[in-house]
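Email to the structure team, subject: Phage gp6-like head-tail connector protein model.

Hi all, the expression group asked for a predicted structure before they design truncation constructs. Nothing fancy, just the tokens so they can compare against earlier work. One-line instruction: predict Phage gp6-like head-tail connector protein, return tokens.
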Amino acid sequence: MMLMEETAVPLAALPLAEFKAHLRLGTGFSDGDIQDPVLESFLRAALAAIEARTGKVLLERDFSWVLSGWRDAEGQALPVAPVSAILRLALRNRDDEEEVIAPALYRLERDAHRPVLRPAGRFLPSIAPGGVAEIVFRAGYGAGWADMPSDLAQAVLMLAAHYYEYRHETGLSGGCMPFGVSSLIERYRTVRLLGGGAR
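Reply from the structure team: attached below.
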């Protein structure tokens, strides 16, 4: 299985002004934007870390997911949430010949934690031996910062500030997550049963 981002979070969606206010950086100086690239990198790192911990896509973008078999042919749970649309479903055989599946043959079952690709009939289309299915979908709470739940937005700012404050430290353990951030994101974490087979 391979999940890939097809589109990136645009710079305009990142809350640089809010982050500067959170850090209490001075304003009104002629070189007030000199740190913007650094602040942007910490915001992107915080977004990525929280998405990895929660399985939630915070800002809307498109993804493609390639898998070699359905976990359950009656409905395949998607790897992240929330998902707003299935954009494309295609099957490829071992010779890389592609069959695009008509949208009338499947539907999205929305769920805050575990959205599912469901067949219109009883089963999803069969994946040939040695072949793969590719699902292209749109996920995220929305295109703008204001579309995100306020506690997740606060967690991103707090974690980005933590990265900024300790940017010169090399002794922090990998995956370091401050307690305040962990408590804010806890209710969004997906409970995975049987290796992710929960539906």
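Confidence is low (pLDDT under 50) at residues 193-199. The longest strand covers residues 83-92. Ping us if the truncation boundaries need rechecking.
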